[in-house]
Amino acid sequence: MRTIVWFCYFWVQFVCLLPTLRRAEKARAAGREDEVQALLSREVPRWAGGLLRLAGVTVEVTGRENIPSGACVFVGNHRSYYDIPLMLTQLDGPHAMVAKQQIDRIPLVRRWMRLLDCVFLDRDNPRRAMQALNAATELVKNGKSVVIFPEGTRGKGGELELGEFKAGAFRMALKAGAPVVPVAIHGSRDIMENNGGWMKPTHVTIRILPPVPTAGLSREEQKQLPGRTASLLLEALRPMQEIPTKPKRS
Question: Is residue 246 part of a domain?
Fold first, then answer.
């Protein structure tokens, strides 16, 4: 029942938010970007937070003080569809994302994602993928933080079995001279994927790690940046395995 209610909420909310969506699109077309950002900052966390609450998700976050005041590239481990609403609600505001091309095909969702300046990555087309990463780089250069999952797809093994961290995510930070902020997510796969697609209450733990500077790195240090970031995430995730993902009864 929880899963059915969740999917109903997902689409009903999108329909209810159509007037707000149109207002935001008109504001952007008119160049009223402050109005757009105010609408996004209010409505996106409200909608995404509703998805988490309906699924019975509780979240514990530490390390928000590590988020820099300027633009950065948030890099997270990726094991669940829920990592997206978690990133939209648990950082210092909803940020642009690098998302897979398939999301751009979902009605209404793509319009909100475009308002967030999300970039859609076609992994089957290297030329278009490079264009998408270049567009994301320009966002960071222009002062907008971007969220990316450098594994490129959801991990299906153990939580400490990270996939290969693709270099493109880090070239974006290097070209923009922006820091990389690793975000360790524990427990998100227990919300749905580990239950055959059915949702169950889950406690998720998120650790936002100190930023990794990218300016002034040597060529060798630049090459090591993906592996270094993966190591930092693994180091954070290991002790998090002791944290129960079953919510405490109040």
Answer: no
> pLDDT tens, 128-166?
888 999 999 999 999 999 999 999 888 888 889 999 999
> CA 226: distance to chain centroid?
17
Alpha helices by DSSP H, listed for 30-102, are 33-54, 83-90
Q: Give the count of domains, the chain.
A: 1
Q: How far apart are CA 243 and CA 157, in angstroms?
A: 18
Instruction: Specify whether the CB–CB gap between 98 and 119 falls below 8 A.
Output: yes
Residue 66 domain boundaries: 56-240
42-100 pLDDT, tens digit each:
999 999 999 999 999 999 999 999 999 999 999 999 999 999 999 999 999 899 999 88
Q: What is the DSSP string of 136-162?
A: HHHHHHTT--EEE-TTSS---S-TT--
Task: Give the Cα separation of 107 and 77 in Å (integer).
Answer: 27
Q: At which residue do the structure tokens 């992994």 appear? A: 123
Residue 181: count of CB within 10 angstroms of its CB? 24
Q: What's the rounded Cα separation, in Å, for the pair 150 and 142?
A: 21
Give pTM, 2 decimals. Answer: 0.94
Q: Which two tokens stand for residue 46?
A: 């409200």
Tell me, rounded to whole angstroms, the distance of Cα 82 from its chain centroid: 9
CATH number of the domain that residue 215 is part of: 3.40.1130.10
The DSSP element (H or E) to which 146 belongs, if any, is strand 146-148
Q: How far apart are CA 208 and CA 91, in angstroms?
A: 9
Three-state SS letters, 159-185: CCCCCCCCCHHHHHHHHHCCCEEEEEE
Positive or negative, the Cα torsion across 63, 79, 145, 178? positive
